[in-house]
Structures are given as structure tokens and as C-alpha cells.
């Protein structure tokens, strides 16, 4: 019931407040605290409790005079007659209703001048144990109870034990002697259950021309019998009641399963959303890393172009250097040939001089004493040729004797010595030129060797920058392979997520179709029950209404979930677009 109705009921019970002239020690609503205790089950007693919160009796409980009401959907209030105490035991009539209390403190010492206390609890619900037993009885289509029947003809307080049996749409009672007390057809006879609120265990089964008063052992048993008779009556009076109850049970089971599947779908979709968020973050990371690699690749490509240009320049320089090297090699070969010829000439000259020296020596030895002057002259020639100084002393006589012959021989010898000196100078000059050429060739060889080494080092550096170094190429290939594996793994996971979402969406569609069918059936059942509202029971109507409302709520939740699934599919589409871009670029 709404707050507005609660305030309306509160204003009904409200009295005129005390005026300020009545003093500060008046006994009014501010003097005590009031509460209503209950667990909202029909088997639990409702307790109204008031406690003093000021004055000398603070903390002491107050006696209350209460008026109890039942708030139903049909009327604002129904007074519960005969109950004026602070305790109230709910019964089967209170299920689905709120219980309200109008309480006024009772004091013999001081008159209460304040407004009445008002509170409410509920709506009262059926005890789960009673509900479970009723469902078992309905499933078996059979129920039996042992009750005490009041014998009014034998005087007040006279009871006898009877067996109350509900079976095959009939309500019957037999006594201990197995005699039938009554037998009613629940689908034809109009039967009404009246509960005695002043007692915790008595009730009556009434009709147009009869009334039977019963006592149960306790209130729990009375409520169980009352609810069973009402449910079996509704079942018997409804056309196709067995099928309807079975369908309701199936509907409840399907609703439970659909709710369970729905919660499982929510958990799964939440997990998939978290996974998709993680994959999206990874995708952003890989995308940024890919942009960095793409930038490095452009830089490497520019460096490659520069290196190719430099290699072309170095190639043209190497062509000229090779030509120069071939020319120097040819010159060196010619110089070596020339030197070898000069060395051969030198050897020949040495051999010739050696032979001449030997012949002169043999000539000197073979000469006699009469020719000593000639020998001395020959010695002078030999000394001049060999470059040695002789210690021999020649006579002036011999010198004069041979003076004319010496002049002739000296002229010829002088020519020979000039030729020898000339060849010696030529040989020395050739040796110097050969040494100079060898030194120059060695310098050129070292220069080109250093040049080749520097070119090889620079080429290795350029290859490293270009990524053609084997070590760098292997590292780059490994990194590229890892990136490709991550990309394929991400694509696979996105495909699996998409497949799982499609499965969940199909499952939700199937559950929605099932729920739509059940809702349609529930509405049909509701129409049948409304058409036979005169014979239907209000409790059974409330159960059907609650099931219909629950189905409507589930249908709304499914619509919201469908919207969430649509948003999630849009995010998956965005991920696929990003993956396609990465695939095209790579």
C-alpha cells in the first residue's frame, strides 16, 4: 500500500494534540516509543510494544489498548473484531494483506492526552512450509486431516474426532465409527471457510444450509486446512484446473530456469565485456607499437635510399680505383722486367770482368823476366780495372820504354772504364728507381688495403642500419613474428568472443520466445479465471497475478539485456575494424 494511503489512515486515527497550556509533564505521544514486531509470515505473532522514554518510569513497558485492521486491495480497512490486546496471530485470511494497529497507552496514574500510535506490517506472506505442503497435496490430489468437530446438539464444549478428507474434487468427513458426517462436491456446492479470530485454532465450514465448527490442534494446522480447502475448491471450480496448475508449475520451473540462464548470461557477458576491454587495450597498445614500427620503417627506408646512393658513389669510385690499380700493376710488371734485364746485364758484366781478371792474371804468370816491364804495366791496368793499388815499384826505364804503348793502351782502357762507369751509374740509377717504385707500390697497396677495410666497416654499419645485418635481421624477424602471433591470437579471441556472443544472443532469443509463449498462456489462464471470477478463489487469483507480473518483469529485463547485447556487438564491430586496418597495413 502506498505512503499516501498510510498517511490517510494515520489521519483517521489522529486526535487533537495537547495544547501548550496543559503543562510540560503531560502524558502524550512524546512520552513513549512504539514499534510493531513481525516477520511478515502468517504463522508468526505480531506484537505491539510501547516503552516509556522519559519521566521517572523511563524504560518501563506500557499496557496498550489496540484496534487491529486488515488493509486489503478491495477496501481501505477491515476491522478485526474481538482483538484488543497488544498481540495478534495472523491467519490465512491475512495472506497478501497489510496488518495495521491503532494503539493507545493505558495508565491508571495519568490520563493520556496525546495522539494514538499507529503502525503497520506486511503484506503478510504464506509460511514456506505451509506452501510446500499445500503444493504436495495438490500434486497428489489428496489430503487428509484429523480435526475435532463441535457437537452443538450435545451442548457447548462437546467435540468428537473426525477425519477430513479431500479427494477427487470432494470434501468429506467421517467419525471414529467410520460414519460419514458430510460429503460435499467442491465444484458444485458453495463452501465457505470462516476463521474465528478470537481463537487460535477454531474455524467453520459453512454453506447455505449448513455450518460445521472445527477445532485444530494449533493455528498452523488450522491455516493449512483452510488454505488446502480453498485451493482444492478453486481447482475443482476452474475448467481444466488440473492442466492449469500443471502449466503453472511448469511455468514456474521454466521461469526459474530462464532466470538462472539469464543470470548466467549476464555473468558471461560481463566477463566477455571485461575480456573485450582488455583486448581493446592490448589492441591500442599494439596499434601504437605498430605506428612506432611504421615510423622506424620509414626512417630505415630513407636510410636505405641514402645507403644505396652512397653505395652507387662508392661503386663508381671503386671502378676508377680498380682501373688505377690495374695500371699500377702493369707499370710494376714493366719495372720488374726492366730491373730483371738490368740485373742480367750486371751479372754478365761481372762475369766478363771476372774472366778478364783471370786472363790477365794468367798472362802475368806466364811472362818471363825480360818482359817484366810489360808485366808491371799490365799490373797497373789490372789495378785500374779492379780498383786496387799495387805496391810494386817500376823503373823509369821500363816506363819510358813502354810510354808510347801505354798511351795507346790507356786510351782504349779509358774508353772501357768510361763504359764500365756508365753501366755502373745506369745500374745504380735503375736500382734507385726500382726501390722507389717498390716503396710507391707498397704505399699504394697499404692505402688501398686501408681504403677497402674502411669501406667494409662502413658497409657493415650501413647494413646494420638498413636491417640487413644477420643478427639485426634475426632480432627484427623474431619481433615481427611475435607481433604477427599476437595479432593472430587477438583475431582468434575476437572471433571466439563474437561466436560466444552469437550463441548467447540465440539463447536469449530462444528464452524470450519461451517466455513470450508462457506469458501468452498466462494471460489466457488469467482470462479464464477472470471469466469465472464468481467461482474462483482470491488467493489463487493473487498467485496467478504475481506469476504474470514476474513474467512481465523478466520480459523487460530481457529487453534491456538485448539492448546491452546490441551495444556489445557494436564494440566487437569496432574491434574488427581496427584489426582489419592492422592487417592491411602489415
From TrEMBL:
<feature type="coiled-coil region">
    <location>
        <begin position="558"/>
        <end position="585"/>
    </location>
</feature>
<feature type="region of interest" description="Disordered">
    <location>
        <begin position="391"/>
        <end position="414"/>
    </location>
</feature>
<feature type="compositionally biased region" description="Basic residues">
    <location>
        <begin position="8"/>
        <end position="17"/>
    </location>
</feature>
<keyword id="KW-0175">Coiled coil</keyword>
<feature type="coiled-coil region">
    <location>
        <begin position="420"/>
        <end position="521"/>
    </location>
</feature>
<feature type="coiled-coil region">
    <location>
        <begin position="255"/>
        <end position="345"/>
    </location>
</feature>
<feature type="region of interest" description="Disordered">
    <location>
        <begin position="1"/>
        <end position="26"/>
    </location>
</feature>
<protein>
    <submittedName>
        <fullName>Uncharacterized protein</fullName>
    </submittedName>
</protein>
Amino acid at each position: 500500500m502506498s505512503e499516501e494511503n498510510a498517511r490517510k489512515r494515520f489521519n483517521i486515527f489522529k486526535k487533537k494534540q495537547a495544547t501548550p497550556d496543559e503543562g510540560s509533564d503531560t502524558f502524550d505521544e512524546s512520552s513513549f516509543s512504539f514499534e510493531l514486531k513481525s516477520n511478515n509470515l502468517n504463522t508468526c505473532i505480531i506484537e505491539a510494544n510501547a516503552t516509556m522514554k522519559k519521566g521517572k518510569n523511563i524504560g518501563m513497558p506500557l499496557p496498550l489498548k489496540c484496534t487491529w485492521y486488515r488493509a486489503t486491495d478491495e477496501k481501505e480497512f477491515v476491522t478485526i473484531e474481538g482483538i484488543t490486546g497488544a498481540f495478534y496471530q495472523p491467519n490465512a485470511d491475512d495472506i497478501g494483506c497489510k496488518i495495521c494497529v491503532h494503539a493507545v497507552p493505558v495508565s491508571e496514574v495519568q490520563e493520556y492526552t496525546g495522539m494514538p500510535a499507529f503502525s503497520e506490517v506486511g503484506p503478510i506472506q504464506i509460511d514456506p512450509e505451509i506452501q510446500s505442503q499445500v503444493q504436495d497435496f495438490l500434486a497428489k490430489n489428496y489430503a487428509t486431516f484429523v480435526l475435532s468437530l463441535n457437537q452443538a446438539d450435545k451442548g457447548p464444549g462437546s467435540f468428537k474426532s473426525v477425519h477430513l478428507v479431500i479427494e477427487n474434487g470432494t470434501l468429506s468427513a467421517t467419525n471414529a465409527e467410520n460414519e460419514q458426517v458430510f460429503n460435499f462436491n467442491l465444484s458444485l456446492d458453495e463452501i465457505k471457510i470462516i476463521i474465528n479470530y478470537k481463537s487460535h485454532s477454531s474455524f467453520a465450514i459453512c454453506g447455505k444450509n449448513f455450518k460445521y465448527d472445527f477445532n485444530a490442534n494449533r493455528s498452523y494446522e488450522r491455516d493449512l486446512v483452510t488454505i488446502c480447502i480453498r485451493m482444492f475448491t478453486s481447482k475443482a471450480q476452474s475448467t481444466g484446473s488440473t492442466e492449469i496448475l500443471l502449466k503453472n508449475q511448469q511455468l514456474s520451473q521454466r521461469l526459474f530456469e530462464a532466470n538462472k540462464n539469464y543470470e548466467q548470461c549476464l555473468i558471461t557477458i560481463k566477463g566477455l565485456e571485461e575480456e573485450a576491454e582488455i583486448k581493446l587495450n592490448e589492441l591500442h597498445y599494439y596499434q601504437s607499437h605498430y605506428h612506432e614500427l611504421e615510423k622506424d620503417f620509414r626512417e630505415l627506408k630513407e636510410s636505405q635510399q641514402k645507403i644505396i646512393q652512397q653505395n652507387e658513389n662508392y661503386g663508381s669510385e671503386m671502378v676508377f680505383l680498380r682501373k688505377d690499380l690495374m695500371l699500377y700493376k702493369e707499370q710494376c710488371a714493366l719495372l720488374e722486367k726492366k730491373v730483371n734485364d738490368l740485373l742480367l746485364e750486371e751479372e754478365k758484366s761481372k762475369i766478363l770482368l771476372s774472366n778478364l781478371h783471370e786472363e790477365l792474371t794468367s798472362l802475368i804468370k806466364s811472362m818471363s823476366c825480360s818482359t817484366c816491364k810489360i808485366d808491371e804495366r799490365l799490373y797497373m791496368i789490372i789495378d785500374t780495372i779492379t780498383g786496387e793499388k799495387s805496391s810494386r815499384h817500376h823503373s823509369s826505364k821500363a816506363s819510358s820504354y813502354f810510354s808510347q804503348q801505354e798511351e795507346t793502351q790507356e786510351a782504349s782502357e779509358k774508353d772501357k772504364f768510361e763504359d764500365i762507369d756508365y753501366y755502373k751509374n745506369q745500374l745504380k740509377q735503375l736500382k734507385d728507381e726500382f726501390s722507389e717504385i717498390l716503396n710507391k707500390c707498397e704505399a699504394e697497396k697499404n692505402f688501398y688495403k686501408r681504403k677497402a677495410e674502411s669501406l667494409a666497416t662502413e658497409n657493415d654499419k650501413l647494413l646494420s642500419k638498413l636491417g640487413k645485418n644477420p643478427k639485426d635481421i634475426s632480432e627484427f624477424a623474431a619481433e615481427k613474428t611475435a607481433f604477427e602471433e599476437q595479432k593472430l591470437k587477438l583475431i582468434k579471441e575476437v572471433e571466439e568472443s563474437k561466436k560466444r556472443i552469437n550463441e548467447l544472443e540465440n539463447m536469449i532469443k530462444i528464452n524470450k520466445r519461451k517466455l513470450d509463449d508462457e506469458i501468452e498462456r498466462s494471460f489466457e489462464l488469467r482470462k479464464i479465471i477472470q471469466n469465472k471470477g464468481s467461482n474462483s478463489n482470491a488467493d489463487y487469483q493473487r498467485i496467478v497475478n504475481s506469476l504474470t507480473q514476474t513474467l512481465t518483469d523478466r520480459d523487460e529485463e530481457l529487453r534491456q539485456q538485448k539492448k546491452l547485447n546490441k551495444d556489445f556487438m557494436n564494440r566487437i564491430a569496432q574491434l574488427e575494424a581496427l584489426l582489419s586496418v592492422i592487417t592491411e597495413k602489415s
